[in-house]
Specification:
By secondary structure, the chain is mostly helical. It has helices spanning 5-34, 40-63, 73-89, 95-116, 123-140, 149-168, 175-196, 206-234, 236-242, 245-258, 264-281.
Length: 288
C-alpha cells in the first residue's frame, strides 16, 4: 500500500487521537469502579448502552436501520469479552499493570492473526514491537508487586477480545455501521452478565453514571468507529504496535490527573515505547 505525505499525516493524526481515547477508557473505568461510584458490570452495561445510543443516531442518519445488517457474531463476541473482562479486572489490578497485560495480549493476538493471515512483517516492525514491549516491561513489571492471577487472567482475556475485534476491522465495510451493530449485539450479553454475576448490586451515583456515559458515548463509540476506519490502512502488525502507546498515555495521564510520581525510569521507558512504535510505524522504502 502506498501512502502519500498527506495521507500518512492524516493516518498518524487519527491514530494518535484514537490511542488517546483508548487510554481515556482506562482512566474513566478506574475512576468509576476504583472510586466506588459504580460496580464493574454497572459500568460495562452503561458504557455499551450509551455507545449504542450515540452510534445508532449517527449511523441512522445515513440509512435508517440498514446498519443493523453489519452485525457479525465474531465481532459481537469479541467486543463483549473485552467490555466485561476489562471492567472486572480493574477491580483489583493497578492501572499500569493492567494496561501492560491488556496490550501485551492484544499484541500477541494481532501478530498471530497477521502471521496466520499471511501478512508480510518487516524485520524493523518486529524490532520496534520488541523495543516497545521492553519499555513497557521496564516501566511496569518492577512495580507490579505480585498481581492476583484471577484479575490478570481476566485482563489477558480482555486483550484477546480486543485483539480479535481489531483484526476484524481489517475486513473493511462502513466503520460506523459495523461499530454500531457490534455495540447493539453486545447489549444483551452485558445485561445478562449484570443480572447473573456478583457485583451488580453496587449503588450507582451520578459520578459513576457520568463517567460511564462519557466512556461509552464518546471515547468508546466514536473512538472505535474511528479505529475501524484506519485499521485496514495500518494492517494488523502496525495496529498492534500502535496500541502499545496506550499504557504510556494512561500512565502519563495518571501523573497529570492523579498526582502520581514522575520518575526517570518512567521517562526513559516511555521513550523506549515511543521509539519502538515510531520504528514499527515508519513506512519502508517500498511504501509498505
Amino acid at each position: 500500500m502506498t501512502t502519500g505525505t498527506g495521507g500518512a499525516a492524516r493516518l498518524f493524526a487519527i491514530t494518535g487521537v484514537v490511542m488517546a481515547a483508548f487510554a481515556a477508557n482506562s482512566i474513566l473505568n478506574r475512576a468509576a469502579v476504583g472510586g466506588g461510584h459504580a460496580g464493574p458490570l454497572d459500568f460495562a452495561l452503561l458504557r455499551v448502552v450509551s455507545g449504542v445510543v450515540v452510534l445508532a443516531a449517527l449511523a441512522g442518519r445515513r440509512g435508517g436501520l440498514a446498519w443493523v445488517r453489519a452485525m457479525r457474531a465474531v465481532n459481537v463476541g469479541a467486543l463483549t469479552l473485552y467490555l466485561i473482562a476489562f471492567s472486572l479486572a480493574y477491580l483489583a489490578l493497578p492501572a499500569g499493570a493492567g494496561a501492560l497485560i491488556l496490550f501485551a495480549a492484544v499484541q500477541i493476538t494481532m501478530f498471530a492473526g497477521a502471521v496466520l493471515g499471511g501478512e508480510a512483517i518487516p524485520a524493523r516492525r518486529w524490532i520496534g514491537a520488541g523495543l516497545a514491549l521492553a519499555g513497557l516491561a521496564w516501566m511496569l513489571l518492577p512495580g507490579s508487586g505480585g498481581l492476583a492471577p484471577g484479575p490478570g487472567a481476566l485482563m489477558a482475556a480482555a486483550g484477546v477480545g480486543w485483539g480479535v475485534y481489531s483484526l476484524r476491522g481489517r475486513a473493511g465495510g462502513p466503520p460506523l455501521d459495523t461499530t454500531a451493530a457490534s455495540f447493539l449485539g453486545a447489549v444483551p450479553f452485558c445485561l445478562l452478565a449484570w443480572v447473573l454475576l456478583p457485583g451488580a448490586g453496587v449503588a450507582w451515583d451520578a459520578t459513576g453514571v457520568a463517567l460511564a456515559l462519557v466512556s461509552g458515548g464518546v471515547t468508546s463509540a466514536l473512538g472505535y468507529a474511528a479505529w475501524y476506519s484506519i485499521v485496514p490502512e495500518l494492517g494488523a502488525t502496525r495496529a498492534a504496535v500502535a496500541q502499545l502507546t496506550v499504557p504510556v498515555i494512561a500512565v502519563l495521564a495518571g501523573v497529570a490527573l492523579l498526582g502520581e510520581m514522575l520518575t526517570w525510569r518512567l521517562v526513559l521507558s516511555c521513550a523506549l515505547v515511543v521509539g519502538g512504535v515510531g520504528l514499527g510505524l515508519a513506512p519502508s522504502r517500498r511504501g509498505k
